[in-house]
Amino acid sequence: MSLTVRTVSPSNTTGNISPPSCVSNVTQWVVTKEQVGKAAVRVQLRLDKSLRLCGENDTDCCTNPLCVLETLQVSACVNGTPQASLLIQAKIYALLVPAVAGSDNNTAIPNQAFQPLGSCPCDLTSRACDVRCCCDKDCSTEELKLFVSHCLLGPFGGQVSPSPEYQCSVQLTENSPDWFPFLCVNSPPENNPHLGLFYRGGVIKSKPGPRFQSPALSAPVPVNVYIEGSPILTVTDEYLTIPQKVLGQCVNRAPVAFLKNFKVECVTLLNTCPTASPLQTQPPDLNIQVNNGQGGDVNVEVTEEVVTDLSQFITRANVLPAADESLVCENVTLAIDYQIYWKGNGITSINLTHFIGTIILNGSVSLTTRYSAVFLNGEFMGEPNSGNPGYQVGRPVIGGIANTSGNNPGSIQRTPINLWKSGSDGLCVTNENRPVLFGENATSGCLLPVSGEYLAQCDLLRQAVRSLQEALTTAIYVANSGNPDPLTVADWVKISFVTLNSSTATGNTRSSCYGIPYHQHIHVWSLITGMVDGVPQRNIHAVQVSYSSTTWTLDCGGGAVSPCVDSLETQLFPITSSVTFTDIPVNAGPPKTRFQINFTEYDCNRNDVCWPELAFPVTRYYTGEPYSQSLAQGLVLVFFFIVASILGTPWRQIRQAWNSL
Does a cis peptide bond (omega within 30 degrees of 0) precede residue 416? Predict the structure, then answer.
């Protein structure tokens, strides 16, 4: 098979394109093919021409901004006969390169703690105009006219946030009242309430950002303070690394980010004893010095613990016969846990717990290693907030328990409020939990295998199911706002638990149990407490956790009699959890009196005639026609009413009585 490319155009008389042909023309395109199957070929066309605009004495260039505008016909021929064809319409513009080269001025990068978004994120190409990026300073006026009506919107297009309504600059574009200049605020655009929404830490003074130039050699470069998300460095200016997951895969040397907690599991198939890091790590390799972000350094304090029970870490994959020789692997890393204590923008101390064990290889085993890092501010874990100040929809609901030990015995320690998370097999023993997200109603569950032997012990079964459900919500308090203070009790609301009747259940038989708490329901009441930049702030007012019970009975119908005969045979029973969010209406007002309930003459909701809304057409709430037109019509009606009153019978009688005096 051969491929031919030629340029075609519609006929002037019929408007049709000529049929496929195996005779190729000279074009500015290069065609290549690649076999991707027995009956499929991938065809690729490449333009063999430069896309630069022509300058002086240029030949391989574009004379117009619209560089290529043509229709191509690609034909697949066998023995000189076309078998298939494809029409391609090519419309390619020239590359927009500014005529004046960019300046060599140094570019200052703003401090990301105060400006998390760039002024023009769509400016991706240096010293070149990016198409549809209207905030690109490299675009000339002529180039902007090509796509001024198709500018990129949102933060990527440079529109980080709208100007607040109290800014004095808003009056230039909106219809503001006359008194607006006396009460408006002149505030710089950098003073944006959206900046630092989830940033937790002390306020630092902004410093000039780095420049694209070599540092002065007369003085050493000062140590930068840590901010949320910045990598932690050692005293040798190397990253502090630990295995983490990136795009679902475990990476052995991933940098640890400041104030970013994580907990991962990595699975490795072992056929021989490991000899390299991280599975074979010596204490001197872990006991390193780390830059504390304040100009000093801290030592990593390493504690080794030997694990004897390896059932949680090892799964046998392939067992060889007992006659084969076994390998003994000593001091294999099973888990590494970092506890990093911080204050302000620096690190005060680092504790590392290194769990090791001895693995006997008789074939191949699947080793599951665990790695974690937790940032603690005193006794508090550095966790992200769920809003500032009110909750944001889709963020986790923050729970808490009373801290009775440590340096702050009267504080509240954060703990999640969870629901069941569906897994691949749906069993409760393998399922993970997922947090309750604010404003999102959800229902989830899992399956619990229960045998006839457990159904014969109803009290034990009820207690086991109750323990599983109570483990979802271990919190006693819930934060009423998205950024609670662990030391302020007023920022927390106590959760109300509704317990089931604990009296002895009747109706239990050998194959059924009554009063199983199969369902846990979390009811959250929230209300709007204020507005920030036009966005309503929602707080949690109350939380109630209740349970529903049911009867579990073995199903032996349909020929499946084995569970009723064999006491060890199991059946699957569902246990579920759900959450419901209810908005409390704002300004409900006092209850209506009996007169207001019975006297409905002036009630616009229950009467066709509404006297209180007689002047509604002349108010700004009426949108049926322009306000100026409604006001003019209303004034005309008032004029006719006054004229009719003056010329009517009452005024005529008053005038006659006045003239008779």
Answer: no
pLDDT for 192 equals 56
Residue whose entry in the numeric block shows the structure tokens 């009630």 = 603
Q: Are 541 and 526 in contact (CB under 8 A)?
A: yes
Q: What is the pLDDT of residues 452-509, one digit of tens each?
A: 777 878 888 888 888 888 888 889 999 988 888 888 888 889 999 988 765 544 556 6
Contact 251, 235 (CB under 8 A): no
The DSSP element (H or E) to which 595 belongs, if any, is helix 594-598
SS (H, E, C) 473-511: ECCCEEECCCCCCCCCHHHEEECEECCCCCCCCCCCECC
Give the least confident one: 9-18, 200-209, 494-503, 533-542.
200-209
Q: Is 539 helix (H, G, I), strand (E, B) or coil?
A: strand
Cα–Cα distance, 8 to 73 (Å, whole number): 7
Q: Which of 251, 255, 262, 258 is nearest to 239 (CA)?
A: 255
Q: What is the residue whose two structure tokens read 């703690």?
A: 113
Query: How many CB atoms within 10 Å of residue 493?
Result: 18
At residue 524, the pLDDT reads 93
The set of residues, in sequence order, having a beta carbon less than 8 Å from that of 64 and lying 6+ positions away, is 94
Which are the contacts of 43, defined by CB distance < 8 A and separation ≥ 6?
3, 31, 32, 33, 74, 86
Rounded CA separation 382/393 (Å): 21
Tokens of 530: 């204020």
What is the pairing mode between strands 512-532 and 570-583? parallel
Tokens read off for 354:
């290194």
**Model confidence over 289-306: pLDDT tens digits?**
888 888 888 888 888 888
Task: Report CA 633 to chain centroid distance, whole Å.
Answer: 52
